[in-house]
Amino acid sequence: MILDLDIGNTLSKWRLKDADSSEIRSRGAVWTREEWRPGADIPDLDVVESVRISSVARQAVLARTVSLLRHRVGGVHVARSTPEALGVTNGYEEPARLGVDRWMGVLAGYQLAGGCCSVDCGSAITMDFVLPGGRHLGGYILPGLRLMKESLKLGTRNVAIDPDSEAEGLLEPGVRTVEAVNHGIYMAAVSAVNRIYSEVCDQQGIALPLLVTGGDARVVSRGIQAPHAVWPDMVYGGLEACFPLTAAERAGRMSGAPGVPRPVSLEKIRAGLAFSMLL
To answer: Which residues are substrate-binding (predicted)?
Structure first.
């Protein structure tokens, strides 16, 4: 079995993948914490042959995790943000400072679609753009839904946004404080994503496929106006592309990869931008 770990600031997600069939056998998530304990926080390591890790947690958390795993597992592969990988040139002035989860998303998106916009809806909402030739432009970091709630000093209790909510309802004025908070936060998030996507496509003169991932991807995607695809395993896809361990991965197939969304024309994007500026 292959254990894939996506260690975030808030949640640490994992999945077990069969090394022979490339099937996903199980998956889960735990709160990111100082120390992991085998059997409680992560799967039984006795069945694991290799581990792949993407981590944005503090260095001490990653170091402890790697140390624990190397005592139990044969191969441990840790992803790093590099100046170039898999045909993509990192757009950061200091490439190592780009969050590795964003880098994995960019690499996965590029392997799937060529040039694209990758949106990760987690503790923060990040947007990264890479052009068809592999030039990563850099990106944007916005507060995520939960972070915006905390900034209002209302916490998350009783103000959770139902991921099955329809976007139309979330864009209406709230008639209770809970609704006003939810709808305002949602409006801020999706408006920013829509405007940033349109502005960058306009500036670069190209309509890019848009891919969405992260814990809040389902609800945020409902308000994204451009054609897009939700890819829950996009960070894992980057790990697969960087460290291919199965026959399917070596052939370039990433687990759970969606069909590439066909973007609207650049003319339509520009027309929408021009109309919004008139309002």
So the answer is: 92, 99-102, 177
